Amino acid sequence: EEEIRSKHTLIRRLLSREYRKYDNVAIVTEDLRQSTQAIASAYQEEDTKENANLVLVKNTINYKSILDRAEQELVFDERTQMNVEEEELRAALASDKKKFISVGRFSKEKGHARLISAFETLHKEQPETLLFILGGYGVLYNETIRLAEKSSCPDSIFIIRYMSNPYPLMKACDYLALPSLYEGFGLVLAEADILGLPCFSTDITGPKLFMEQVGGYLVEDSREGVLDGLRACLDGRVPEKLNVDYEEYNKGAIAQFESL
Fold first, then answer.
1. Short-list 198, 199, 200, 218, CA closest to 208
2. Per residue in 38-81, pLDDT tens?
3. What is the pLDDT of residues 90-117, one digit of tens each?
């Protein structure tokens, strides 16, 4: 719904037709059922089946691969771009400062602008902190760099674009922030948890149900909410570990898939 409203790259009528056409339409979290139903029935005079073809099939989470790849050497690809020299980035990662990381494409919905703004306030309170933002595609990479440069702590914000293996970078950090305005699920929360990083998310559709079920930390969907999450990490209010057994989680996801 938000993609349609904000980007105009998806056509509601086309999605509505496609969602009704197939025997099963899989949603990866129960959070998405309401919006998917609304789109599917948008151009249907009668919805007698009540969208019976909508089924929940969670993503599997390859935690073993994540752990294995995190142990590999930190390598930057030929196409990796950064707002600093590689030596400066590596020195920051090796420092004793508390390091926050956010992972997501450079698009408005990922909330990088309000994360940088919130971090500015935190950095004034706690100068021994660093922020890393890692993304792949997205049109706002240069704009994100400009926001970092214009901030009150430009030397403490690191912007990285493209890494084929992001997990060594994530593992080198202390906390993960998900400041998004909307998400499908927020898989990076599980990835951070697997790597031992306390993590928090804005209270939005997608991550909300997962975080509630596993005892995660949710913050208000605002700049002030993100700031609360950053402070909560340093204060020890964010759980060190989510209450999830990834082996059992995967068994449940596979069972959902096989039930089709």
1. 218
2. 888 765 555 445 567 889 999 999 999 999 999 999 999 999 99
3. 999 999 999 999 999 999 999 999 999 9
